[in-house]
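Hypothesis: this fold can be encoded by more than one sequence.
Test: take the structure tokens below, design a sequence, compare later.
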């Protein structure tokens, strides 16, 4: 939540965990750290009476150690280590089985622009003809000067139609290559979003009932 203090976050997590007995399972997810994607996950899980939240494992372990035994805590911790800031661990309290949780995660789609340095997930090719965006709408000719600055050849303004046109097929990049600054800027001009955000289950524990 935007603007939420660390104290408020801790209190919210404490409140969730104090009610842990109301759920059958707790899951640990490794998730792309993209706010819009995480908000989608939270909404979808809340609609099936499940709660997704951030929390540091040590704090969660301390609270759950009163409820879970050592084996269960180890199962929840999982074996996945991560160091990159583009990933984050989330926890999910739910009555749903693991297959159902993963199916919800898999169906939530959030596409974003690939950034400079990302590995291209597909070829970037501009076909001959009017320059169209990903929704098959003509790219405004007001963007032509921006394209010129990128130094991309074989793109002109058609004097008859006043539209931006590609005179020869242009291969901007190939799958597996690292995205350059020029490719990133051109991708935004044509609205090309190839980066798919996702999450996966990396730990799980059954919550014992008294």
């Amino acid at each position: 939540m935007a603007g939420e203090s660390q104290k408020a976050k801790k209190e919210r997590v404490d409140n969730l965990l104090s009610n842990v007995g109301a759920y059958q399972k707790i899951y640990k997810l490794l998730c792309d750290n993209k706010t819009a994607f995480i908000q989608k996950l939270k909404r979808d899980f809340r609609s099936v009476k499940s709660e997704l939240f951030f929390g540091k494992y040590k704090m969660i372990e301390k609270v759950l150690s009163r409820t879970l035994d050592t084996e269960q805590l180890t199962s929840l911790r999982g074996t996945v280590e991560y160091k990159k800031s583009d990933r984050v661990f989330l926890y999910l309290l739910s009555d749903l089985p693991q297959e159902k949780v993963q199916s919800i995660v898999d169906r939530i789609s959030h596409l974003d622009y690939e950034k400079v340095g990302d590995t291209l997930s597909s070829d970037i090719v501009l076909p001959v003809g009017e320059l169209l965006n990903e929704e098959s709408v003509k790219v405004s000719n007001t963007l032509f000067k921006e394209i010129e600055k990128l130094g991309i050849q074989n793109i002109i303004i058609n004097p008859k139609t006043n539209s931006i046109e590609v005179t020869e097929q242009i291969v901007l990049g190939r799958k597996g290559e690292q995205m350059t600054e020029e490719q990133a800027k051109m991708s935004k001009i044509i609205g090309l979003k190839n980066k798919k955000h996702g999450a996966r289950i990396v730990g799980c524990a059954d919550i014992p009932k008294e």
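The chain has a mean pLDDT of 88. DSSP finds seven helices and eleven strands in the chain.
Hypothesis status: open.
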